[in-house]
Design goal:
Blueprint: H1 16-19, H2 21-30, E1 35-38, E2 49-53, E3 62-71, E4 77-82, E5 89-92, H3 93-102, E6 109-115
Antiparallel strand pairs: 1-6, 2-3, 2-6, 3-4, 4-5
Length: 117
């Protein structure tokens, strides 16, 4: 959990901290010195990481990066995210949650790491 790379020399594969969401969360939280734990994902700003446990079984299943923030005329904020899933580039967090619900994921647990500028 202390190594993060897309390619481990000699093994020719990514480290678990690169390719496995739970290990990525642990590495970014404990070893990167770049993020702080968030208590509210709706306050995420650009470069923050959002993690989701689709079934609330205690295992993080997916990670998303915040690439911007949409602020409405009324002042509400909705993080804009990118993720590896097809057709999930520059969508709002609200849209991502709606897609998850359509796929049957209605009991979600969220974790957030706020990027430290």
């Amino acid at each position: 959990t202390s190594v993060w790379t897309w390619n481990l020399s000699g093994i020719l594969s990514a480290s678990r901290t690169w390719s496995y969401a739970p290990s990525n969360y642990t590495f970014m939280k404990d070893h990167s010195n770049t993020f702080t734990v968030m208590d509210n994902i709706w306050h995420a700003w650009q470069s923050s990481l959002l993690y989701v446990d689709w079934t609330s079984d205690g295992t993080i299943d997916h990670v998303m990066i915040v690439v911007g923030v949409l602020v409405s005329d009324s002042g509400t904020v909705d993080p804009i995210i990118d993720q590896k899933t097809n057709n999930r580039y520059q969508i709002t967090l609200h849209q991502s949650i709606a897609y998850a619900a359509q796929a049957g994921h209605k009991n979600l647990t969220w974790y957030g790491l706020q990027y430290k500028f």
